[in-house]
Amino acid sequence: MRGTSIRMERIINRNTGNAVIIPMDHGVTVGPIKGIRSVKAIADAVASGGADAAVVHKGAAAFGHRGYGRDLGLIIHLSASTALGPDPNNKVLVATVEEALKIGADAVSIHVNVGAEDEGRMLSTLGEVSRHCRDWGMPLLAMMYPRGRKIQDEYAEVNIAHAARVGAELGADIVKTNYTGDQDSFARVVDSCPVPVVIAGGPRIESELDLLTMVEGAIGAGARGVAIGRNVFQHEDPALITRRICGVVHKGLGAGEALQISSSK
Length: 265
Hints:
TIM Barrel; alpha/beta; two-stranded antiparallel sheet; 8-stranded parallel β-barrel; 12 helices
């Protein structure tokens, strides 16, 4: 477990115990969309804004490696699907813990859609990946979402709490999941999950104040950070929005206060 603890300090702010993680693995899922056409450029921007870590696929870790600037924790995403496939909810393993170690990863992540047609296979994969992570002292971020034909509301507290608990019970060190929409209900989700929880950014949010308010609510509920992708890398100033999110996550600022942070600070 010592290796896990040491590596966790590379993806979590050791002073606050919270994390601002920027997923950039969307190139496999939806292609080279705006904001991630150059992984290296967006990595520069979010690193300068104070992000703690980024999530990328193994190939992007190679062509996105900077070799300069502020350190940015490296989380290798192990599972994938594409929007062009017959079932985008069907996530399959495309990399291993051992590969991630050779690349130099500080952690790995895996995506599981609880309630999907292939839930059983994804849960089996999560359990197997978790075992390898324990063997190698590698932190595991489990992206746990309630998605599938039986799921009527992906943001319902009961569904999110269940998905998060599955991730924790199958060995995740950190669980990423949807925000329920209000602080009280999400506090119950966090309370029922025995490992740290970070929230997903979700679909593109046009109002920056709404985004920061969501982050404030999650942190107030006990979340240990965020894992926000397109609401950061598709922002007109990714470094600035990262800095503002860090203001909420690491400095305890309210959404309105964080919105006052300028690009010069």
